[in-house]
Every structure is written in structure tokens, then in C-alpha cells.
């Protein structure tokens, strides 16, 4: 019975934060005595963020709200390569073991390939088969219809849709109709409030680790905007990526081997860890002598 309620604390936290966020946005609207346009809201948030009467944490919260207003699903989703998903013919017994191992309460279900998502399996829906022979039941018997959104969808709009439709997970689709990743209500709320950790979350290392005043160790998953907070603005034309790994792919044109070094603007990137499919970890340096070839 315990696993059926494994997401209940997170549900309560998520519901509270959703309500808080709605009240917070409403508060800003009433402060200005009018229903603001998106440009007005952005201007008001910038003004409040720069106010000397706010402490550092309040300014950070306001800045997070601005990023939430402007953000898209691709920036916050769990990318396809990191998704946990099951095939629709997976036996109930195997699904239960996977849910316990990963600590997930909702898992996407696919047919043939992960580009063909056909449902979402909820752990709590297993209860109806409590006294049933698990070997005769597959995930397809209790999965729910999936909810699809484009990876370019505004995350503020998606939060409203999650509330209206009473769903907590969506499948992000790329421009070709393939699966780009998944996004949950927790992913959206973390843009505002930071990491929401429950007892099932594994402790994750920071995406960016400061080594010294001129050196960082950076996960390839880290966003370009996060890196710029440490190294200053980067001038990037025709940006079709959001992460450090995407930037390096664009610069190099292939998957580099470990220890390969590349210079970009005022930075030097060294590949610390990579596999056959992607870059994993890099060292970023600045104010260093250029490499002489």
C-alpha cells in the first residue's frame, strides 16, 4: 500500500506551491491596479527585482518568476536520453519493481520505440490488481492517455493547463513529432522555488562546481545561461540549443574524445568525460594562455 501513496507528499507540496504562485502573480497585478500585458509584467518584475528594499532572496525569487514567464518546456524538461519508460507489453510485476527502484509514481509507456508514446502508467492504478495474478496483466491494461505538448511551449501556459486538466506530466514533442522528453509539474515549480526534494530523489551533484577563480567543472546538462552567470555573456548566433553540451556539439560538429580541448571566445573547454553518444562533464577555464598549435 505504501507505494501507492509514494507521491502524496509531493502532491501536497506541489498543490501548495501552485496556489502560492497564482496568489503571487495576482498580487503583482493588483499592485498596478490594472490587468497588465506580458510586457508590463516583465517591466514591473524588473523594477521590483532592482528595488533596494528587497533582500537577496526576494530579488532571486522575483528573477525566477521572470524566467518562468519567459521559459519554454525544452529548458526544464527531462531529456529523452534520461527518460525512464516502459514498453506497453511490460508485465505488472516488472513495472512494480521498476517503480520501486526508480522511485517514480508516473512512468511513460511506449509501443515499439520511445518516439511512439501511447500512455502513462500511474503506480496508484496498480491497486485494482492487488489480488490478481501479476503475470497475466501488462502495463497496457491500466495506463492512462498521454498528454502531449511542443517542446517550445511556454511553461507558464503549461502550468495553467496542468491545473485545468488535472494532469501532472506531459510528453514533450520536437518539431518532427518525435519524443524530446517529459516535463512534470515539479519541473515547472522548481523554476520558481528551486529543487523540490522528496525521499525518493537521489542526491545530485551541482551542475557547476567552482574549482578556482578561473576554473569551473561543468555538467554538459548545465544551461548556457547558468554558465554565463560565472563567465559573462557569450555571443552565440543561431542558437538551437540550451546547454553546454549543445554548445560544444555546435562548435565541434561531432562527439569529442575525452581530454580534447577547444577554445571559444574567452573560454577554454576541456572534455573530462564523454561516452559514445554525448558529452558528460567538461572543464571550463578563462584568463589562460592560448594553446599554440
Summarize the entry for a quick read.
This protein has 293 residues and is an alpha+beta fold.
Features:
CBS-domain; 293 residues; single chain; alpha+beta; Uridine Diphospho-n-acetylenolpyruvylglucosamine Reductase, domain 3; 35% helix; globular; disordered N terminus; 5-stranded antiparallel β-sheet; 4-stranded mixed β-sheet; 22% strand
Structure characterization notes:
It is a multi-pass membrane protein. This is CBS domain containing protein. This protein is α+β, with helices and mostly antiparallel strands. Among the domains are: 121 residues, CBS-domain (Roll), CATH 3.10.580; 79 residues, Uridine Diphospho-n-acetylenolpyruvylglucosamine Reductase, domain 3 (2-Layer Sandwich). The protein has nine helices and twelve strands. The strands form three sheets. It has a five-stranded antiparallel β-sheet with strand order 8-9-12-11-10, covered by helices on one side. It has a four-stranded mixed β-sheet with strand order 1-7-6-5. The chain has a three-stranded mixed β-sheet with strand order 2-3-4, with no helix packed on it. The longest helix has 24 residues. The radius of gyration is 22 Å and the shape is globular. 23% of the residues are buried. The N terminus is likely disordered.
Report the span from N to C terminus.
Answer: 64 Å
Q: What is the share of helical residues?
A: 25-40%
Placed side by side, the strands forming the largest sheet appear as 8-9-12-11-10
- Supply the CATH architecture of the domain at 73-193: Roll
Helix segment count? 9
Let me know the largest β-sheet. 5 strands, antiparallel
Helix and strand sequence: HHHHEEHEEEHEEHEEHHEEE
Can you tell me the residue ranges where pLDDT is under 50 for at least 5 consecutive residues? 1-8, 25-42
User: For the record, what CATH class of the domain at 73-193 applies?
Assistant: Alpha Beta
**What's the total number of strands?**
12
Characterize the overall form: globular
The CATH homologous superfamily name of the domain at 73-193 equals CBS-domain
SS strand fraction: 15-25%
- Average pLDDT for all residues: 76
GO cellular component, one term: plasma membrane
Domain CBS: 77-137, 142-202
Keywords: CBS domain, Cell membrane, Membrane, Repeat, Transmembrane, Transmembrane helix
Organism: Vecturithrix granuli
